[in-house]
Each structure stands twice: as structure tokens, then as C-alpha cells.
Amino acid sequence: MPLKASTHPTCTRPCATEALVVLEGTLYVGFVTSNTNNRLFTKVLNKAGDVFVFPEGLIHFQFSAGKTKAIAIAALSSQNPRVITIANAMFGSNPPTFADLLTKVFQVDKNVIDHLQAQFKQDDISHATTAPNDGLIR
């Protein structure tokens, strides 16, 4: 499935479960379990009223997968859910995460890490940050 439309950055909410309700459009959503099995759970939400729940603390994603814009509302189980955006945390940290460490962790060439760190550089991170925390996919 090509990523042509808007994407909400891969993130985790360490202090809340998140329920996502589609109002219009189509969303491809999912999360990955942790520990030894790293199982991926996904679903296509393609009609108003479709719901998906992201368990507390698990890395999850959502992106608009239809031909029209998708609108959804997120409800969180905490008034202070916190959010950790995975790519921003790994590649946009200040000071930068040691590139040699990231090459070993992600098992890629250092040029890949350099490119990713440049994309998430703190002084120009506007294109790599999350949308406003209003639960809408743009």
C-alpha cells in the first residue's frame, strides 16, 4: 500500500490507551506489540464510525489510505497521555544520538543515519513533527 496521503507519525502514548473513530475517509491503522514477538496488528477503517484502539504504551501508526481526506477523532484514557514520536526521538534528539550507535541498532549504513538525522534536525524540524494534537489526520 503506497503512502501517498497524510500520515500521523509513528508514536507511543506511555500513559494512555487511544481510541480512534473515523468520521470520513479511509485510514490504515495499526500497532506493534512489544517484547519477543513484535506482532503487527492492522486494520483498514473505511467508513464513518469505524473504531480502532491502540493499547497504552505500544508503538502505533495511522495514515490516510483513501482517495479523499480522512477525518478522525482520538479519545484518550488520560488527561495527561504524553506522546513519544519515535522518529523524532531517535533521529532528532538534541544533542544528536551517536550515529555509530544508531547504525548498529538499525543495522544500516551510516549514510542512512546521517540522512535521517538531517531530516529531523532540531533547528528545522517543522516538516518532521506531529500535527496538532487534535486527533485529526490531515
Q: What is the element string, with H for helices and E for strands? A: EEEEEEEEHHH
Global geometry: globular
Quick one: biggest sheet? 5 strands, antiparallel
Tally of strands: 8
Helix content bin: 10-25%
Return the structural class.
alpha+beta
Strands of the widest sheet, in order across it, are 4-3-6-1-8
Average pLDDT number: 85
Portion of residues in beta strands equals: 25-35%
Radius of gyration: 16 Å
Distance between the termini: 18 Å
Show unreliable segments: 124-138
Work out the helix count: 3
Could you describe the 3D structure shown?
This protein is of the alpha+beta class and 138 residues long. α2 packs across α3. The C terminus is likely disordered.
Write the layout of secondary structure elements.
Elements: E1 7-12, E2 18-24, E3 27-32, E4 40-45, E5 51-54, E6 59-64, E7 71-76, E8 84-85, H1 86-91, H2 99-106, H3 110-119
Antiparallel strand pairs: 1-6, 1-8, 2-5, 2-7, 3-4, 3-6
Helix pairs in contact: 2-3
Keywords:
138 residues, alpha+beta, five-stranded antiparallel sheet, three-stranded antiparallel sheet, 3 helices, 8 strands, globular, disordered C terminus
Short summary:
With 138 residues, the chain is of the alpha+beta class.
